[in-house]
Design a protein that fits this description.
Elements (H helix, E strand, L loop, with lengths): L18 H16 L5 H22 L3 E8 L3 E8 L20 H8 L2 E6 L5 E8 L2
Antiparallel strand pairs: 1-2, 2-4, 3-4
Length: 134
């Protein structure tokens, strides 16, 4: 699946509206590869965690998903999430029980092979994450 910046005809081209729908898309693409990989369960868990974090942030803090895509490359799954906010993800300093949140972005960066953020003219951003198929 390539990056889908807008809604198109049919369910495969509609933007996910929930985090669960985003995870389902990643699971569908990954299952094409899973039978040929050792450690597939661990890889899928990492990919679903990153998907959950990015989709949740877009929905909660980014004004909603404006684009979503997932595709397989030779050595990585590429996840693309776009939202309406020009604000880049942040890590909140001093998190503790009284100040939840701020842990997702460092986790994404740790699990990813590469992360890029591209501002969108007129507002918003596109985050692309390459998750290695180790």
């Amino acid at each position: 699946m390539e990056y889908e910046g807008r809604r198109g005809p049919g369910p495969a081209h509609e933007l996910p509206t929930t985090v669960a729908q985003a995870r389902d898309r990643v699971r569908e693409v990954f299952e094409r590869l899973a039978e040929r990989r050792t450690g597939a369960d661990e890889l899928l868990t990492d990919m679903l965690l990153v998907t959950s974090e990015l989709a949740t942030n877009a929905i909660r803090h980014g004004g909603g998903l404006t684009g979503f895509g997932v595709r397989l490359e030779a050595d990585a799954l590429v996840l693309t999430v776009a939202d309406a906010s020009p604000e880049f993800p942040a890590t909140l300093p001093g998190n503790g029980p009284a100040t939840p949140g701020g842990f997702g972005w460092p986790l994404i960066c740790r699990l990813a092979k590469h992360v890029s953020i591209t501002p969108v003219p007129g507002g918003g951003k596109i985050i692309e994450v390459l998750l290695p198929l180790r």
